[in-house]
Write a structure and sequence with these properties.
The chain is mainly alpha-helical. The chain has seven helices and four strands, in the order ααβαααβββαα. It has one domain. Bound molecules: zinc ion. The site of zinc ion has 7 residues, from loops.
């Protein structure tokens, strides 16, 4: 077998290893009818029971991805035991990449996983906040944070993750985006993210000099 076919087999294996675990995320959300309860994408989502229920469901679907990840991993390892096949190696590497991207947290304070329980709890607490920002407080999850619709007060600095709504950019493009971002928002988790901390530190050093 030539080197180029080996490389192609490796890449195809890797793609399968990366895409297969994310199938539940695409199938259960985009292709089953889950559009009730929440406003259509990309509108802001009101904080309420439908949103909390959807977050819990999305968390379960994210866990389901681990189950589908075992299939290409087991198959890849089984083939590798018998022969050093580039396709199988690619598949194992793809699943490993999926696992690493899930295990390594973007922000340690926000907890592990794409939708951590601490974030869901914070959102749930906002249904009945202890102190209201204004008289007619109405919280909505916007792209970057949860804010009051009336006075624009930021109640929770956390970008909105993928909620399984059919994306406004269409099924194909939307699915590709979900695959690439793994259901995360394209924005960093909060002001305390590594990137913004780094840029803050840099500007501080620049000021001192
Ligand atoms: Zn308000």
């Amino acid at each position: 077998m030539s080197l180029s076919t080996d490389v192609i087999r490796l890449v195809v294996g890797m793609l399968i290893g990366m895409i297969l675990p994310r199938i539940p995320l695409l199938f259960f959300t985009r292709f089953l009818n889950m559009e009730q309860g929440l406003p259509p994408h990309p509108d802001s989502v009101p904080i309420g029971i439908p949103l909390v229920q959807r977050l819990l469901l999305m968390r379960r679907i994210h866990f389901m991805c681990w189950i589908t990840a075992t299939l290409p991993l087991a198959l890849g390892l089984w083939i590798l035991q018998n022969s050093p096949d580039p396709f199988a190696f690619g598949m194992v590497a793809g699943v490993s990449w999926f696992a690493i991207s899930r295990i390594v947290p973007e922000d340690i304070e926000q907890g592990f996983g794409i939708l951590s329980m601490s974030v869901i709890k914070s959102v749930n607490n906002l249904r009945e906040p202890e102190t209201d920002c204004c008289e007619q407080a109405e919280y909505y999850w916007e792209v970057r944070s949860i804010r009051c619709k009336q006075c624009r007060f930021v109640a929770l600095e956390h970008p909105r993750p993928d909620l399984g709504r059919i994306r406004s950019d269409g099924r194909l493009k939307g699915s590709l985006r979900v695959l690439l971002m793994d259901g995360r928002s394209i924005f960093p988790p909060s002001n305390s993210s590594v990137v913004s901390e780094g840029s803050k530190l840099l500007s501080k050093i620049a000021e001192e000099e």
